[in-house]
Design goal:
By secondary structure, this protein is of the alpha+beta class. The chain contains 12 helices and 5 strands.
Length: 243
C-alpha cells in the first residue's frame, strides 16, 4: 500500500487552502485516508476537501482482499473502509470521521454542521435518516447490480425489487422535505447532503436508475446542486469507481 499525497494531484484545493487559510498550513497534520476508490471513503474525501484539510490517500484493492491484511486489521478490526490516520489518532466509519473533522475544523472551509444548535440538530437528524433509511436499500442495490456481477454472483431479483420500493418511499419523503428547503437540513449544504453523494452517484450512473431521482422535481434539483460541487467533481476525477 503506497500513500498518495493529495498535494501531488490536487493543486486546486491546495491553492485555495493557501490563499484562504494560509495560517493553518503549518498547524495541521496531513490526514491519511485508506480506500479512496470505494464509496464510503469518498464521503470522507469530500468532507476533507470542503473543510480544506490536507490529506493523502492509501489505495486498497478490496477484490484482492487487501482490507483483510493483518496490518490493515490493526487499524480497522472489522476489515472495512474508510480508515483515517491523523498522527496516532485512528478513526473508522465514514460518518463518524466526517463529524469529527467538521467539528474539529468548524471555523475552516465550508461550515457543514450549521451555525446554530437548531441547525446542527437538523444536520444530525437527516444524517441519521441517510444512514438508517436511505443507505440500506441503495447499498443493497449497489451490491446486487454492481458488485455481485463483478464477483460472478447471481442477482436476487426479488431483493432488487424490494430495495427499489424501499428507496422510492424514502425519496418521496425527501421530495416533500425539499419542496420546503433547498437542502435537507435547511438553506445550507451540510454533512446530511454530502453523505448521499457516493451511492446516489452509482444510482444515477452505473445502476441506470436515474429515473428514481429525475421523476421527483425537488430531489432532482437537489441532486444537481450537490453533485455539481467542485469537491465532488474532483473526487470523481481523482478516484474512479472500481465498477
Amino acid at each position: 500500500m503506497r500513500a498518495v499525497a493529495w498535494s501531488e494531484n490536487f493543486q486546486y484545493a491546495k491553492d485555495q487552502r493557501e490563499q484562504r487559510i494560509g495560517k493553518y498550513k503549518s498547524a495541521t497534520m496531513v490526514v491519511k485516508v485508506y480506500g479512496p476508490a470505494c464509496a464510503s471513503p469518498k464521503r470522507v474525501l469530500v468532507c476533507l476537501i470542503e473543510k480544506e484539510i490536507e490529506f493523502e490517500t492509501v489505495p486498497l484493492d478490496l477484490f484482492k482482499g487487501e482490507h483483510k491484511d493483518p496490518e490493515f486489521l490493526k487499524l480497522q478490526p472489522f476489515g472495512t473502509v474508510p480508515v483515517t490516520e491523523d498522527g496516532d489518532y485512528i478513526l473508522f466509519e465514514s460518518r463518524a470521521i466526517m463529524r469529527y473533522y467538521a467539528e474539529k475544523y468548524k471555523s475552516q472551509g465550508t461550515d457543514l454542521l450549521g451555525k446554530t444548535i437548531e441547525g446542527r440538530g437538523q444536520v444530525e437528524n437527516w444524517l441519521e435518516v441517510e444512514a438508517h433509511n436511505y443507505n440500506p436499500p441503495i447499498r443493497t442495490l449497489a451490491h446486487q447490480l454492481l458488485l455481485f456481477p463483478k464477483l460472478g454472483f447471481p442477482r436476487d431479483e426479488n431483493l432488487i425489487e424490494e430495495s427499489e420500493e424501499k428507496l422510492a418511499k424514502v425519496l418521496d419523503v425527501y421530495e416533500e422535505k425539499l419542496s420546503n428547503s433547498k437542502y435537507l437540513a435547511g438553506d445550507f449544504f451540510s454533512l446530511a447532503d454530502l453523505s448521499h453523494l457516493p451511492f446516489t452517484q452509482y444510482l444515477v450512473g452505473k445502476m441506470g436508475k436515474d429515473y428514481m431521482i429525475r421523476s421527483r422535481k425537488h430531489v432532482s434539483a437537489w441532486w444537481d446542486d450537490i453533485s455539481s460541487r467542485p469537491s465532488w467533481q474532483k473526487v470523481l476525477q481523482l478516484y474512479p469507481s472500481p465498477f
